[in-house]
């Protein structure tokens, strides 16, 4: 059974019925205070500690790597590079974690003083794009067919709910060939149904001409309108394209460089 790391920590740091924290900590070879901090999220346990706790619960662990596609990374980059400041009080923990990671990337940039801000910005965009790669997004649909903004907008309207375009359908990249159009929606199934007469699905995300992906509240909060089509924020357009492979990333960063230089 696959579980997130947070779920694993919660499960193995629990106290089995009839046991005490002392029983669990002694068998796992850790202090009671350490067990308490792990269960409260105050400390991040090592893999060795997690495995010892799992053994206490009669389980074992395997570690599996998978392609990264975290929507919180794109949200964090959009917020960090947005022209308008936004309070972080109500942001999800995942977004805050990614803001910290991206700020560390920016802080580590070594460049001429007049270029440092631009170089740091481009590195943040690149890192966020790669971390939020839509070719591996859970719940996304990959289609072949028309990918222009008007066709995707028509599908978004037909499916009801919120929607916005990005990728090759966004204004900044509409003249770029080979980029899939991205349609962010609140209901992927309904949108795919609205496209079913003109589009067919593909199992290979790399061959997709249209990506229909589930959007969240943060994404739909900062939209603009271009010729009657809802479009994600400019920073989000760049991040989305950066996640579509090396060639797409170079194109996206060239566009971003023209904005900040």
Automatic annotation (TrEMBL):
Domain HTH cro/C1-type: 18-64
MF-aspect GO terms: DNA binding
PROSITE patterns: HTH_CROC1
Top-rank lineage group of the source organism: Bacteria
Cross-referenced InterPro entries: Cro/C1-type_HTH, Lambda_DNA-bd_dom_sf
Name under which the protein is recorded: Helix-turn-helix domain
Organism in which the protein naturally occurs: Corynebacterium variabile
